[in-house]
Amino acid sequence: MNWLLVVEQCLNGLQFGVMLFLMAAGLTLVFGIMNLVNLAHGSLYMVGAYLATAAVTRTGSFLAAVVFALLGTLAIGMLMEVLALRTLYERDHLDQVLATFGLILFFNEAVAIVWGRAALFTAVPSALSGHIQVLPGIRYPAYRAVIIVVGLLVALLLYVVVTRTRLGMLIRAGASNRTMVGALGVNIRLLYTVVFGFGAALAALGGLMAGPIYTVLPGMGEEILIQVFVVIVIGGIGSIRGALAGAVVVGMVDTLGRAFLRPMLSTVIGPSAADNAGPALASMLIYILMAAVLYFRPQGLFPALRG
Amino acid sequence: MPTAEPLLAVRGLIKRFGGLVATDGIDLDVAEGETLAVIGPNGAGKTTLIGQLSGDLPPDAGSIRFAGVDVTALPAPARSQRGLARSFQITSIFREFTALDNVALAVQAHAGHSFRFWTPAFTERALREPARATLERVGLGARADVVAGTLAHGEQRQLEIAMALATRPRLLLLDEPVAGMGADESQRMVRLLRELRGRHTIVLVEHDMDVVWALADRIAVMVYGRVIACGTPEAIRANAEVRRAYLGEEVPA
Amino acid sequence: MRSRARVLTLLAGLLALGLVPLVAALTQQPFYLDLFRRIMIFAIAAVSLDLILGFGGMVSFGHAAYLGIGAYAVAIPAFYGIHSGLVQWPLAMVLSGLAALAIGAVSLRTSGVSFIMITLAFAQMLYYLGISINAWGADDGMRLARRSQFGGVLDLTNGYVFYYVVFGLLLTLLWLGNRLVHARFGVVIRAARSNEPRMRAIGFSTFRYKLAAFGIAGAIGGLAGALLTNQTEYLTPSYMHWTRSGEIMVMVILGGIGTLYGPVLGAVAFLLLEDVLSAWTVHWQVVLGPLLVLVVLYARRGLWGLLPEARRADG
Question: What pTM does this model have?
Answer without folding.
Answer: 0.91
